[in-house]
Design brief:
The protein is built from 25 helices and 33 strands. By secondary structure, the chain is an alpha/beta fold. The strands form eight sheets. A nine-stranded mixed beta sheet has the order 11-12-10-13-9-14-15-8-16, with helices on both faces. Strands 3-4-2-5-6-1-7 form a seven-stranded parallel beta sheet, with helices on both faces. It has a six-stranded mixed beta sheet with strand order 26-29-30-31-32-33, sandwiched between helices.
C-alpha cells in the first residue's frame, strides 16, 4: 500500500483475512460463503478492501497468495465504481490499474473472468433488456454464463464484492430492481443460467439489510465490524457537528447566511495560518448552500441574487470568477446579476481548488466526498431534515486525513438552519445518530458545543505546563520493536534530523541477526533446523499387484527446490519486516566469502522461526529505539504537527505505556449545557471571556476549596479521552487502562508554579484500588513535575460530619502504602489512616 492503515483498519484487515482463510477453503457452488464487512461512513472501507485485494493476489503470513484470483466489484451506480477504481489505483502500489483493473461494459464477452484481475460492474447493466445479459448478435456468452463458469471452475479464487451492500435493499422501484439483481448472486437464477456465487463480501455502513437478504440463503455468514468509536479516535473524521439555529423558526434567513459566511471566512483564515505554519498545502474550505426547490418555470424559490449579494456584503469583497458553482441537474452555467455560477459535477468539487461556494438542492450526497466542505447553510424547511443529515455525512471527513491538534476549531463542521427551532433541530440530531448515512462525529447545537481559547495573561503558566508529561494508553496498535526501530531510523533520515540513522539502524540490526545466527550455529541448532528446510524425507511403499499388500521399501532424502526455500525466505521476511531478510542476505553475501545463496537464506529462515532468537532481537531493538529516540527527541519536538504525530505513534506502539510531552493546544473543544454554571480562573475560556461547565457535586465542592486558596491561579477541567487530556495508566486484571483525573490545579509560590492532580473518586467503584496504585506509580516516576496527587472522597470524620478527605500519593510515606494495596478494602484502611481534610 502507498499509505499506512490506521490501527482499526489493520484490525479489520486481519479479521477479513481470517474469515476468508476459512471461507475460501470451504467455498463451493453448493456450499456458498459470505462475509459481511460493515463500518461507519468515513471509516475507509475501500482502503481496507484494497489492502485485502493486495493480500489475496500477493499473500501475507498465514494467508496464501492467489495470483490467479478473480474479483468482481458490484455497485448500483457507475460513478461509485469509478470512484473505487481511482481509490484502488491511488492507494495500492501493487494493484496495477492498466493490467489488473477492468470495467465490464456492454461489449464484454468472455467464457470466464480471467484470473489476476479486479472487475467492476454496476446493476444498471444487468437488466433483462441489457446486452450483457443476452447472447446473439456476435455475443457468445451472457454475463450470467460467464459468472457461473468462473464460480464452478475456481470457487475458492472467485470473490464477488457487493459495494454499499445496503443501498440495493431500500425502497422504490429502482431499489427493488437492484435488490432483485443482487439476490440472483446469492440465490442463483436457473432461468438466467446463473449459479449461486460461492464467495460474497458485502461492504456497507450497516450490515442489517445485507444480512437480512442473506437470511433467505444458504450462505454461511461471517461478520467483520469496525466500531464507530475507533473511527472517531483516528482523526479521519471531524470531531464535531455544530448546529446553529434561532430560538424560534425564523424568516431571518439572510442574517444566518451572513453568519455562515463569517464562519466560513474565519475557518479559511484558520486553515491558512495553520497550513503556513506547518508547511502544508493550503486547505481552502467550502461553504455549501442548500436552496429550495423550484417549479417548471422557476429554478429555485430561494432568491439567488439576494443570497450572493448577502455573501459579498458579509465577506467584504466581490465573489471571484469561478468561486461559486452549482450542481442543479436541470441547468447549465447561470448568470446571477452578472456573476457566473458554473455548473459542476459533485464528484469534481473537491479537486477544483478555486471553488469556495457550492449551491445545490437535494442530490449532492451520492458520489461526493468533499472534506473541504466545512460550513453548510440550508434554506430548506424542517421536513427535509433527513436529506440534511445525509449530506452532512459527506462533509465530515478531515481535509488532512488527521485531526488538527493545534486548533480545535478546524475539527468542526457548522450547520446553519434558519427555519428550524429547538424541536426540529432535535430531529436533525437524531438523524445524525444514524451511522448508516452519517459518520460518528459528536453532534449538538452551538449552544452546547463550544470552542475554548487560552486565557490571556497566562503565557508563563502554559509554558510551564509544557514541561509536564502525559501518557496515551492503548492509543496505537502494538508493533514489533524491530518495525518500530526501523521506522524511527527511516523517519529521522526522512526529516533530516540524522542523515545516517536509517543506514545505521539497519546495520546494527543485521549485525545482531548475525550474532543470533552464530549462537544457533554454536549450539548445533542451526544445522539441525536447516536440514528440515533444505531436505525432504521420502518413504517408499510397495503394493503387490493383485495382492493388496503394502510393504515398506525404505526411505530416502532429496534436496528442497530453490523455489521452496525462496517461499520460506519470503515468509521470514514478513516476520522480520522492512526487508531485513534481504539486508541480512546481502550483508552475509558480501562479508561471508563465497557462500551459497540458498544457505544464507536458510539462516534467515531458521532465525525467524527461533522464538528465543527473535525475543532477543526484539529486546535489542527496544533498547536501541529508546536510546535513539531520547537522543533526538528535542529535534522531533520541533517538527511540524503531522511528523511529530508520526514519531509519537512509533513511540506509543508498545505494550509498555510511554510518556509524551503534555502539549495543551491554543484552543480546545468543550461540551456544556446552555444553563451550565460559571466558574472563575479556568485555563481556557469561551469567546466571551467566560467558562461554564456541568460539574458534579464533588467536583464543585473540591474546586471551591481549591479556589479559596489565594495561591491557586488557574485550573483545568480534564475531560476523558480528548487529544489534549492528561492521561495516566493503571493496570486492572492484567490489562493497561487509562484514567483521566478530573481536575488539574495550578498554584504559585515563591519558587514558581506548582501543579496538582485532584481526583474526586467514588469509593464504591470496583477499580478504586487499581486506580490508586496507578496514581501512586505515576507519582513515583514523575514526583519532580507535580506537587499534590490526590484521591479525594467525601466521607464522615470522627465527629460524624461529612467532609472531603484527601489521600496524597505525592507524599512518599503514603505512596509506599498505596503501592502495596491490592484490594479496595486495603485502600479503605490506608484512607482511614492517612487521608486528611484540606
Amino acid at each position: 500500500m502507498k499509505v499506512g492503515l490506521f490501527d482499526f483498519q489493520e484490525d479489520a484487515l486481519e479479521q477479513l483475512r481470517t474469515k476468508l482463510t476459512t471461507a475460501r477453503r470451504l467455498a463451493a457452488v453448493d456450499n456458498p460463503q459470505a462475509v459481511s464487512f460493515s463500518a461507519p461512513t468515513g471509516a475507509g472501507k475501500t482502503i481496507v478492501m484494497t489492502a485485502l485485494f493486495e493480500d489475496i493476489f500477493f499473500g501475507e503470513p498465514g494467508f496464501d497468495p492467489q495470483p490467479d484470483a478473480a474479483i468482481l466489484w458490484i455497485s448500483d451506480m457507475p460513478e461509485l465504481n469509478e470512484q473505487t477504481r481511482l481509490k484502488i489505483e491511488g492507494k495500492s502500489d501493487r494493484v496495477n490499474r492498466v493490467s489488473m483493473l477492468r470495467t465490464i461494459d456492454a461489449g464484454f464477452d468472455a467464457e470466464r473472468l480471467a484470473g489476476g484481475h479486479i472487475y467492476f460492474m454496476n446493476t444498471q447493466k444487468l437488466g433483462s433488456e441489457k446486452l450483457l445479459t443476452r447472447t446473439g448478435d456476435g455475443r457468445q456468452h451472457s454475463i450470467w454464463e460467464t459468472l457461473t463458469k468462473t464460480a464452478q471452475a475456481v470457487p475458492d479464487r472467485f470473490y464477488v464484492v457487493i459495494d454499499e451492500a445496503h443501498r440495493g435493499m431500500r425502497g422504490g422501484k429502482a431499489a427493488e430492481k437492484a435488490r432483485t439483481i443482487l439476490q440472483r448472486f446469492l440465490l442463483g437464477s436457473p432461468e438466467d443460467g446463473l449459479c449461486r456465487m460461492p464467495q460474497v463480501i458485502g461492504v456497507s455502513a450497516t450490515p442489517r439489510r445485507f444480512e437480512e437478504l442473506l437470511a433467505g440463503t444458504t450462505h454461511t455468514v461471517r461478520k467483520v465490524y469496525i466500531e464507530a468509536e475507533k473511527v472517531r479516535e483516528s482523526g479521519l473524521l471531524k470531531d464535531r457537528i455544530l448546529i446553529h439555529y434561532p430560538d424560534a423558526a425564523s424568516q431571518a434567513e439572510m442574517t444566518l447566511l451572513a453568519e455562515a459566511a463569517h464562519r466560513w471566512q474565519t475557518i479559511e483564515k484558520g486553515w491558512s495560518a495553520y497550513c503556513q505554519k506547518q508547511h502544508e498545502e493550503i486547505v481552502w474550505p467550502i461553504l455549501v448552500i442548500q436552496v429550495e426547490d423550484g417549479s417548471d418555470k422557476l429554478l429555485t424559490r430561494t432568491n439567488l441574487s439576494t443570497s450572493l449579494a448577502t455573501l459579498e456584503s458579509a465577506i467584504g469583497r466581490r465573489l471571484r470568477e469561478g468561486e461559486v458553482a452549482h450542481t442543479f441537474n436541470d441547468s447549465g452555467d447561470l448568470d446571477v446579476d452578472g456573476r457566473r455560477v458554473r455548473r459542476i459535477e459533485a464528484s469534481r468539487i473537491e479537486e477544483e481548488r478555486n471553488i469556495g461556494v457550492v449551491l445545490f438542492k437535494m442530490s449532492l450526497s451520492t458520489g461526493w466526498d468533499c472534506p473541504r466542505a466545512e460550513v453548510m447553510m440550508s434554506f430548506r424547511r424542517a421536513q427535509d431534515h433527513t436529506y440534511i443529515a445525509q449530506l452532512l455525512g459527506r462533509m465530515v471527513r478531515t481535509p488532512l486525513a488527521r485531526r488538527v491538534e493545534a486548533d480545535a476549531a478546524l475539527n468542526d463542521v457548522h450547520l446553519f438552519l434558519p427555519h428550524y427551532d429547538q424541536a426540529t433541530v432535535e430531529s436533525v440530531i437524531e438523524d445524525l445518530r444514524n451511522v448508516e448515512d452519517v459518520p460518528p462525529s459528536e453532534t449538538g447545537t452551538s449552544r452546547e458545543l463550544v470552542t475554548l481559547y487560552r486565557r490571556e495573561g497566562l503565557e508563563e503558566v502554559f509554558k510551564a505546563l509544557g514541561e509536564l508529561v502525559t501518557y496515551r494508553v492503548n492509543a496505537v496498535r502494538r508493533q514489533s520493536a524491530l518495525r518500530r526501530l526501523m521506522g524511527l531510523g527511516r523517519g529521522l533520515t526522512h526529516d533530516r534530523i540524522d542523515a545516517d540513522a536509517q543506514g545505521t539502524v539497519k546495520t546494527r540490526i543485521v549485525e545482531q541477526m548475525v550474532e543470533e545466527v552464530q549462537r544457533l550455529r554454536d549450539a548445533g541448532t542451526l544445522e539441525e533446523r536447516a536440514k528440515q528446510i533444505t531436505g525432504i524425507d521420502l518413504k517408499i511403499i510397495a503394493v503387490g499387484h493383485g495382492a493388496g499388500v503394502a510393504e515398506d521399501e525404505g526411505e530416502y532424502s532429496i534436496e528442497a527446490a530453490s523455489a521452496d526455500i525462496d517461499r520460506h525466505f519470503e515468509q521470514a521476511g514478513r516476520r522480520l519486516g522492512n526487508g531485513l531478510h534481504m539486508d541480512y542476505w546481502r550483508y552475509r553475501s558480501e562479508t561471508g566469502g563465497d557462500r551459497d545463496a540458498d544457505a544464507v537464506k536458510v539462516e534467515a529462515v531458521v532465525l525467524a522461526q527461533d522464538h528465543a532468537g527473535m525475543k532477543r532481537l526484539e529486546t535489542f531493538a527496544e533498547g536501541q529505539f529508546d536510546t535513539l529516540y531520547a537522543q533526538h527527541k528535542r529535534d522531533i519536538g520541533k517538527l511540524k504537527e503531522q511528523r511529530r504525530q508520526h514519531f509519537q505513534r512509533l513511540r506509543l506502539a508498545t505494550s509498555v505505556p510511554q510518556t509524551i510531552p503534555w502539549v495543551l493546544p491554543e484552543t480546545i473543544d468543550f461540551r456544556r449545557s446552555p444553563t451550565a454554571a460559571e466558574y472563575a480562573k479556568h485555563l481556557f475560556l469561551e469567546e466571551d471571556g467566560r467558562f461554564r461547565a456541568d460539574l458534579g457535586a464533588w467536583e464543585q465542592a473540591v474546586l471551591q476549596e481549591e479556589l479559596a486558596d489565594a495561591s491557586a491561579i488557574a485550573w483545568l477541567r480534564n475531560l476523558d479521552r480528548k487529544p489534549w487530556s492528561l492521561e495516566i495508566p493503571y493496570e486492572e486484571a492484567g490489562n493497561m487502562k487509562p484514567m483521566f483525573p478530573d481536575l488539574l490545579v495550578v498554584r504559585r509560590d515563591s519558587k514558581g508554579f506548582l501543579f496538582d492532580i485532584l481526583e474526586p473518586h467514588d469509593p464504591s467503584l470496583k477499580d478504586n484500588a487499581a486506580k490508586a496504585v496507578g496514581l501512586a506509580r505515576f507519582a513515583e516516576r514523575h514526583w519532580a513535575l507535580f506537587d499534590r496527587i490526590q484521591l479525594i472522597r467525601k466521607q464522615k470524620g470522627a465527629d460524624r460530619v461529612e467532609r472531603y478527605f484527601r489521600l496524597d500519593v505525592g507524599n512518599d510515606a503514603v505512596r509506599k502504602q498505596v503501592l502495596a494495596v491490592t484490594t479496595n478494602s486495603q485502600l479503605d484502611q490506608v484512607f482511614d489512616a492517612e487521608a486528611v481534610v484540606r
